[in-house]
Specification:
- The chain has 562 residues and is α/β, with parallel strands linked by helices.
- The chain has twelve helices and 28 strands.
- A seven-stranded parallel sheet has the order 16-24-23-22-21-20-19. Strands 1-3-13-7-8 form a five-stranded antiparallel sheet, covered by helices on one side. Strands 2-15-14-4-12 form a five-stranded mixed sheet, with no helix packed on it.
- Helix 2 packs across helix 3, helix 8 runs parallel beside helix 10 and helix 10 runs parallel beside helix 12.
- The chain is globular, with a radius of gyration of 24 Å.
- The two termini are 39 Å apart.
């Protein structure tokens, strides 16, 4: 985990800065609303009653992206009078010769609701108003106490209600402990789904509504400048038009230099649930596509798969475009050497090359018995992975094929594993709990590159500590969720979008490194770009502007390409 004191200090500096500029909304009663173009990937939490500095006032948003890339941008609507049924739509994005469809401009509402904590840890502390969900239907979640103005103070009377498909709202704020830790609510019991299209929103006078825009540049997207308009209409009356400026860069991003996996608990079932556990094929397919769209190419499998389930799993994963080279199974353990040939045979049609079984989770496996078991796995053609602390991972670097190491990454540990031809992934840095997009962007992005890690296996895409939609019904832990399950898909979160930006940062860095190699082969002078990478490798990124770093990498890539 990043240095907490440094993060808190920088966060306080941000708040003080906002205070110094006056926190003034400069609207007048003659203007029904004001638009503030705000950073999307930030750990500053905007609430419905937050005051926003006037220097964010803008009627335009600007984005740079490459073909195939998803890139987020955000703005806030501040209502100076009650606004009812505000429709938000996007035009196509038009360039000199080509047009990107408006359907590639994905607009969602950032929903503030109550969650069980505001710190980096996975523990429940109270009820904290938090911007997290990215919704098409703002009314899917009803919140009482949304006028609460503090992000770091608990509001005991704040409550959340989830709208079912019949229009009835269900209380999801009860602190009553559920009978099962991984509580499975059937789809029939909780039929919930978001709207496929953006629904009109209501904004009370004096309140904010944050809007999240993700532009997906098509793979064929031709380089150049594109413009479009986001229109805000109340009935037939246009209240505001926001200009979109998109620059499609002449860069084809490389795949990241590291592998992005994740702990995934879902199992395909005829009867799906609204939980992290049982999924219909429709749910499973939607989640695999969502994972891939966010840079995760190979989620792990938590159970012991049968031949039938392997066919289901890998058929779907291959269909959505995942890479199945490495099979990570935490349902096969160190005593399963005899089963490796069976699974190699079953998974061969799906291009699986390496089968990883799981050690004793977060325990010391540096003893003669477990070392013998690992040797047996190797002799059977398999490999071993295990979640470890840095100390425990260090003890077995010579024999453990993949250490998934928690908290702050260690360059020294990575180098030790590489000496034996083994790999180190990151998890628990942090767990998928805190709603901090920039934290996930940095810690699972350039921070891993700086420390020469081979990948990430984050815990977890979804992990239901009791009811996954209720953050208050477990005696200790908060739910771990990147994307909330519905009956036909998922609802993304701001921290999940931050994670994707971290993956993309690594893709930009990988592209720069590959471009340097190509430029060298052409006899170009790459000294300046190499010096930049060398300096960035040791720079403390805690307080750095990651967008500026992205822009710098882009500049060097373009310079060397030319």
């Amino acid at each position: 985990m990043i240095n907490k004191l440094s993060f808190v200090f920088s966060f306080l500096i941000l708040l003080v800065t906002f205070s110094l500029v006056g926190f003034q909304n400069t609207a007048t009663s003659a203007v029904p609303l004001d638009i503030y173009a705000v950073p999307a990937i930030t750990d500053y939490k905007l609430l419905p009653t937050s005051q926003i500095p006037s220097y964010f006032l803008s009627d335009s948003i600007s984005i740079k992206a490459t073909p195939g890339e998803f890139e987020p941008v955000s703005f806030v609507i501040h209502a100076n009078t009650d606004i009812n049924s505000l429709a938000i739509t996007s035009s196509d994005l038009t360039g000199n010769e080509f047009t990107i469809p408006g359907s590639n401009v994905d607009i969602r509402i950032v929903k503030c609701w109550y969650q069980g904590g505001y710190l980096f840890d996975p523990y429940a502390h109270g009820k904290y108003l938090t911007p997290e969900l990215l919704l098409k239907d703002d009314s899917l979640i009803k919140v009482t106490g949304d006028n609460f103005a503090l992000t770091d103070s608990s509001n005991p009377i704040g409550n959340n209600y989830l709208k079912l498909t019949n229009g009835i709202y269900e209380d999801i704020s009860s602190s009553t402990i559920k009978p099962s830790e991984f509580f499975e609510i059937s789809i029939l019991e909780r039929p919930v789904k978001d709207s496929p299209t953006l629904q009109p929103v209501n904004i009370r006078e004096g309140y904010n509504k944050q809007i999240w825009v993700t532009i997906h540049v098509p793979e064929w997207g031709n380089p150049g400048n594109y413009t479009g308009i986001i229109t805000l209409k109340e009935g037939l009356h246009t209240l505001k038009e926001i200009k979109i400026n998109l620059q499609v860069l002449p860069i084809i991003l490389s795949k990241p230099s590291m592998e992005y996996s994740i702990y995934y608990r879902g199992r395909i079932s005829d009867q799906g649930t609204i939980s992290s556990e049982l999924k219909t094929k429709e749910q499973y397919t939607a989640e695999m596509k969502n994972l891939l769209d966010h840079g995760v190419t190979n989620p792990h499998i938590i159970f012991t798969p049968t031949a039938e389930s392997c066919v289901q799993i890998f058929s779907i994963r291959n269909t959505v475009g995942m890479n199945c080279t490495n099979l990570y199974i935490t349902g096969l353990y160190l005593d399963s050497a005899s089963e490796i040939p069976y699974y190699r045979n079953v998974t061969a049609p799906y291009a699986v090359k390496n089968i990883y079984v799981y050690g004793l989770d977060e325990q010391n496996i540096n003893d003669p018995v477990n070392r013998t078991k690992m040797t047996n796995i190797h002799n059977s053609g398999g490999k071993v992975m295990n979640a470890q602390t840095e100390f425990l991972a260090d003890l077995v670097a010579d024999i453990l094929d993949l250490a998934v190491v928690n908290e702050k990454p260690s360059k020294e540990l990575a180098h030790k594993y590489h000496k034996y031809g083994h790999k180190v992934f990151s998890y628990g840095n942090p767990q998928v709990v805190p709603e901090y997009p920039r934290l996930f962007r940095l810690n699972y992005g350039l921070s891993l590159w700086q420390n020469d890690y081979d990948g990430a296996m984050v815990f977890a895409y979804q992990c239901s500590y009791c009811d996954i939609w209720n953050d208050f019904d477990h005696p200790i832990y908060r739910d771990h969720v990147f994307a909330y399950p519905t009956m036909n898909g998922v609802i993304d979160t701001v921290q999940w979008e931050g994670f994707r930006e971290g993956v993309d940062d690594v893709r930009y860095m990988t592209t720069l490194q590959n471009t340097i190699l190509e430029a060298k082969a052409q006899g170009k002078d790459t000294t300046e770009a190499e010096r930049y990478i060398e300096n960035l490798k040791t720079t403390d990124l805690t307080d750095q502007d990651l967008d500026v770093i992205r822009s710098e990498m882009t500049g060097y890539i373009l310079e060397l390409q030319n």
